[in-house]
Amino acid sequence: MTALHHSAGIVHSARTVAGLLLADLPERWRHTAGVARQAAKVSRAASPADVDYLLAAAWLHDVGYAPSLRGFGFHPLDGARYLRAHGWPSRISSLVAHHSEALTVAEVRGLGSELAAFPRERSAASDALTFADQTVGPGGRIMSVDERLADMLRRHGPDSPNAAVHPPRAAQIRAAARRVKHRLAAEALPARYAPEAEGPLLFPVTANAVPGARSEIRAAADVSHLRTGDPDCGDRDEFADQR
Ligand SMILES: [Fe+2]
Q1: Which of 122, 57, 63 is nearest to 96 (CA)?
Q2: How far does residue 2's CA lie from ligand 1's centre (Å)?
Q3: Is residue 147 predicted with pLDDT exceeding 50?
Q4: How many CA atoms lie within 13 A of 201 on its CB side?
Q5: How confident is the model at residue 228 (pLDDT cuts 50, 70, 90)?
Q6: Burial class (CB in 10 A: 0-12, 13-18, 19+), 24
Q7: 3-state secondary structure of 34
Q8: Residue 62 CA to ligand 1 centre (angstroms)
Q9: pLDDT in tens, 44-95
Q10: What is the spatial distance between Cα 35 and Cα 211, in angstroms, rounded to a whole number?
């Protein structure tokens, strides 16, 4: 079995686990699916070796909103802690922890040290994840970064932690978006990240992750039937005609 088959299994498993965890949050699920599609659209901005990490993180980035995962009440942290506890590669839990400049909000909420326990990755893949999240609205509608930031401020309110850190956070998000657009325009694909040793990519991610869902998750983790162009997984080939 090739590494590509394994990594396609990661994306498929991520989609399945996100779907199960967000089953009672339809608007969050529509947003998540939109972010995954958007991540696939801009995946050319990331190193080819990083695309499956990007897509898996896109599916999983908001699982921390699931009521069953609530711990600190801060979804990037709750989601990352869940993923780490259930054996996902540390790179994916870290991408989830830090998506959309979460550390700025975590610090004002007094959760900076907890979030900083997850290594921060600064890469084309992390930029692409932030770009995807910040160009898809709560219900899945595509919007500009400025529209998304304004909508976020409106929803969280003027006294929220998000509002308190908005200027520096928005500047960092806009910078990430500019980098993604620049990379897409240049079609430069530098390999900027050397994956750490993670062991086998087909991992028992979720055997105990979702009560009552063992059979579905094991089926999702069985990659023997998958191919790298599986469109249901947000594979980059799905969007080949939209580049
Ligand atoms: Fe999101």
Answers
A1: 57
A2: 31
A3: yes
A4: 23
A5: very low
A6: exposed
A7: helix
A8: 5
A9: 999 999 999 999 999 999 999 999 999 999 999 999 999 999 999 999 999 9
A10: 26
Q: Where are the domains of the chain?
A: 3-188+207-223
Number of H helices, E strands in the chain: 12, 0
Question: Is the Cβ–Cβ distance between 103 and 115 less than 8 Å?
Answer: yes
Kindly state the helix (H) or strand (E) to which residue 210 belongs, with its residue range: none
Question: At 223, is the pLDDT very low, low, confident or very high (cuts 50, 70, 90)?
Answer: very low
Contacts 24+ apart (CB under 8 A), 192-199: 192/47, 192/123, 192/124, 193/47, 193/49, 193/50, 193/121, 193/123, 193/125, 195/49, 195/53, 195/91, 196/90, 196/91, 198/89, 198/90, 198/91
| Strand (E) or helix (H) holding 16 | helix 3-21
Residue 1 Cα to ligand 1 middle (Å): 33
Distance 38 CA to ligand 1 centre (A): 12
Q: How far apart are the CA of 171 and the centre of ligand 1, in A?
A: 18
The two three-digit tokens of residue 44, written as one number? 């050319």
Strand partners, 136: 142
Separation between Cα atoms, residue 187 and residue 166, nearest integer Å: 31
Percent of the chain with pLDDT over 90: 67
